TrEMBL record:
Gene Ontology MF terms: DNA binding; DNA-binding transcription factor activity; pyridoxal phosphate binding; transaminase activity
SUPFAM superfamilies, per database record: PLP-dependent transferases, Winged helix' DNA-binding domain
Keywords for this protein: Aminotransferase, DNA-binding, Pyridoxal phosphate, Transcription, Transcription regulation, Transferase
Protein species of origin: Saccharomonospora azurea NA-128
Ranges for domain HTH gntR-type: 26-94
Keyword Endoplasmic reticulum appears in the UniProt entry: no
Keyword Nucleotide-binding: no
Annotated protein name in UniProt: Transcriptional regulator with HTH domain and aminotransferase domain
Stored Pfam families: Aminotran_1_2, GntR
Alphabetized CDD domains for the sequence: AAT_like, WHTH_GntR
Segments of this protein annotated with the region Disordered: 82-106
Similarity section: In the C-terminal section; belongs to the class-I pyridoxal-phosphate-dependent aminotransferase family.
Amino acid sequence: MSGEVDRFQHGAALAMVLGDWSAGEGPLYRKLAAALARAVDDGALTTGERLPSERELARVLAVSRATVVAAYEELRERGVVDRRQGSGTRITGRRKPPRSDGRVRGGQGTAIVQRLIDGPGSLISLSYAADAGLPEVADAVHAVAAHDLTELLADPGYHPRGLPVLRAAIADHYTATGLPTEPEQVLVTSGAHQALVLLAEVYLRGAVSVVVEAPSWSPCLDIFRQHGVDLVPVGLDADGGDGIDVHALASALATTSPSLLYVMPSFHNPTGRLMSATRRRQVAELAARHEVAVVEDNAYEGSLLSGDVATMPAPLAAYAPASAEVLTVASLKGVWAGLRVGWVRGPVGVVERCARRKAMADLGSPLLDQAVAARLVPRLGELRRSRSAVRREQCAELQRLLRHRLPEWSWRTPDGGSSLWVRLPGDHSADVFAQLALRHGVEVVPGSAMDPNGEHDAYFRIPFLRPPEVLAELVNRLAAAWTELQRHGPYDDLPLRPVV
C-alpha cells in the first residue's frame, strides 16, 4: 500500500485535520464520526485511505477506545468507511470524489492556516502569534492621506516589484544594518509568507530536497512540501546555543544535494533562538561550498527580548562569501501583521524571476499599504525597540503564570520572537495533551507538526502576545487540561463499554 493511502496511520496527522472536532453538544463518538465524515466530504480524506487503528486514534484523541469503535461503526453504517479484519478501516469509494480541499499532502500546517480562515471563536488559539498594530501605523496612514494620496492616485497602480519608494526604503534599511543593498535587489510581497511561496516556485521545480531546521514552522514547511520535495531536517544546538547544528548541516548538505537551505536566524520559530554572527558566517560558507541557495526567514527579527536592537547581528547574507546565493525574507509583522507587507532581498536575477511570478499571482501588492509601509520602514529600529519592551513584559508574565500553575513544565527563555517552546515532563505526548486542551478551550499546535524528525513530540508552542487577563485565562485552561490528563490519563487502556 502506498504512503499516500497510509498517511494517517499515525493518529497525530489525522488529529490536525479534524481540528476542533470535540466542540459542541452530544456524545463524543457522534462528534468524532461527524468530523471524519466532513473530512471525507471536504476531500481531506480520500477513497482508499486507511484510518488509524482504534487504539491509536483513541490514544491521540484522549478518548476511550469504545468512542472510536462507535464512531467507526457509525461511519460504516453510513457507507463512509469499510471495516475488514486484517485490512483496517478505509474510506470507501462509494461517494462522489470531492474537489481538492486545498491541503498539502503530507503537511500539517494547513490546519493552522484553516484556523485563520475559521476564526478562533471561543477558543484561545495558539496556532498563530500576532498582536495589535503599533500606534505609529495610524500616524503613517494619516500622513499618507495628507501628503501622498494625490500622487498615488495619479499612478496607474501596477508595480509588481513594489512601490519604488518602499523598495528604496528597504534597501536603505539593509545598507544601514551592514548589508549593502540596491532597490533592484528588493521585491515587495504580501507578507513574508508570499515571499517564501515565490522563492519555492523559482527554486523547487524538479527539485528533490530542501534542508530545514528541526523543529520549524509547519505552514512554511508545507510551502516546500507542495512541490513534492523531501524535507531533510537538521536539529539545533542541543544546549540552546547558536542555532542550527553546523556539523549535522555539513553532513546533510554533502549527502542530499538539496536545492535550498531554509533557516530562521532572527528569531527561530518556535524556539525563539537568535543565531550568532559566527554561526551565520559558518552556515553561509557551508552553503556556498556546496552551491546551495539559502533562504533566511527573518519575519520575527524585530522581537528582541533581551539587550538592544542595535546589537543584533546583521542578516545572514551580510556574512556570506561572494559566491553564496542568499535570499533574505522579512516583513512588517512586528509592526502590524494586518499591513501584509513583506519582501525578499537577493540577487537581481532571482528577484526578477520572483517578480514575474508575483505579477502572475496578483499584479502587485496594494499601493496604499506600501505607501504606509514606506513611512514606517525608516523607523524600524525605533518601532522594534518599542515593540520589544512590551513583549518582554508579556513573556515574563506568561513565564510567571506557568511557574506558578504548571511547575512541572520546562522551557528555555527565548532570545526573541513571540512564543515559549514548552516541554511536557516524562513521556507525555503533546498530541494527546492537545486534545484535552481543546476540550478546555485552548487550541494547541503540538511539536509533531513542527518536526519531520519526530523528536519534539513532547513540545508545543505558547505565544505570549496577549493581554495579562487573557494570559491568565489561557494558563488556567491549560492547567485544567493538564490536571485532567494527570488524573485520568489518555484513556487508551480503558475497557470497551457501551457508549451512550
